[in-house]
Specification:
Layout: H1 2-24, H2 29-51, H3 58-82, H4 88-95, H5 98-108, H6 116-137, H7 143-164, H8 171-192, H9 203-230, H10 233-236, H11 239-255, H12 261-279
Helix pairs in contact: 1-4, 1-9, 1-11, 2-3, 2-8, 2-9, 3-7, 3-8, 4-11, 5-6, 5-7, 6-12, 8-9
């Protein structure tokens, strides 16, 4: 089941970056993210109630709220805004650094050891990210949106590690709470930057939001949350390596996106570094450093 979940999350996430760009053509970006998360929170809460799933409480709830802040509120605000100008395939490639980001942060939180080989691999991946920046800047993509997408991917890695710090929770209630928190933050950000809060005027305009709500939030994020609970966080984040391949293909087919040669070189460096890093033996932290208590 873990490999089935991995495949499903990869296929869905490989298309979500394109649908974010398509949605940005219809409504304001962060407002679009707020709509998606609000619908997702409502539907996930209904599913959790019908199935009798237990919602997190106490200290666990505090951690899930932080998960919602980083993984949905801040991550989506930056990603949606960044994709106004960053090609969807390139955005997905930035998220391919997620396994190494997760590994570095897992070491900071005492979940995994960080040895010299993993550090070198992470540095190589960062060199690849810098190469991607150079390639996109050569195509006149502004640096700020690129930084926004990279920051979004980093915050997603932080959210994964925070979730791993607490005992396994039900994927549906965790994402219901997280999406609700994220919707509030995205709405606040959208209001702060002065976006227009208009609804799509046609069914075609609703398609990206509905797809991202149902396939993305109810599908991929729930599947991935379940996968993080059953696999090491770094291994689960391998989804970030395979999804960009699909994202680049569909972005080229639908939007005519063509990354520069330098960008493709940087992508190759990042993906190769991640594959090497994931092939290194998993090194959990010593038992004395792990705490069963939620943060």
């Amino acid at each position: 089941m873990t490999y089935v979940a991995f495949t499903a999350a990869t296929l869905i996430w490989g298309t979500t970056f394109l649908f974010i760009r398509l949605g940005n053509d219809v409504v304001a970006p962060v407002w679009s993210a707020a709509l998606r998360l609000a619908f997702a929170a409502l539907l996930l809460t209904l599913i959790a109630r019908v199935t009798g799933a237990r919602f997190p409480r106490g200290e666990q709830l505090k951690t899930v709220v932080l998960f919602g802040i980083f993984n949905f509120g801040l991550n989506f605000s930056l990603l949606y805004w960044g994709e106004l100008q960053v090609p969807s395939g390139v955005a997905a490639i930035f998220y391919s650094s997620l396994p190494l980001t997760t590994g570095l942060l897992a070491a900071v939180f005492g979940l995994e050891r960080l040895d010299r080989r993993r550090t070198l691999v992470a540095l190589a991946a960062m060199a690849g990210v810098a190469t991607i920046f150079a390639g996109e800047l050569s195509l006149d993509v502004p640096p700020l949106p690129l930084l926004a997408v990279f920051a979004a991917a980093t915050l997603s890695g932080l959210a994964n590690v925070l979730l791993k710090r607490i005992p396994a929770q039900g994927a549906v209630p965790v994402n219901a709470v997280g999406a609700g928190v994220g919707a509030v933050i995205c709405l606040a950000v959208s209001t702060a930057v002065g976006e227009e809060h208009a609804l799509p005027g046609s069914f075609e305009g609703w398609i990206p939001i509905l797809y991202l709500t149902l396939a993305g939030s109810l599908g991929a994020y729930v599947i991935y949350t379940w996968l993080v609970a059953h696999w090491p966080a770094t291994r689960a984040s391998l989804v970030g390596v395979t999804a960009p391949v699909i994202a680049v293909i569909v972005g080229a087919a639908v939007k005519g996106e063509r990354p520069s040669v330098v960008t493709l070189v940087g992508a190759t460096i990042v993906l190769s570094s991640v594959v090497v890093g994931l092939r290194l033996p998993h090194a959990p932290a010593p038992a004395v450093r792990r705490s069963a208590d939620p943060i």
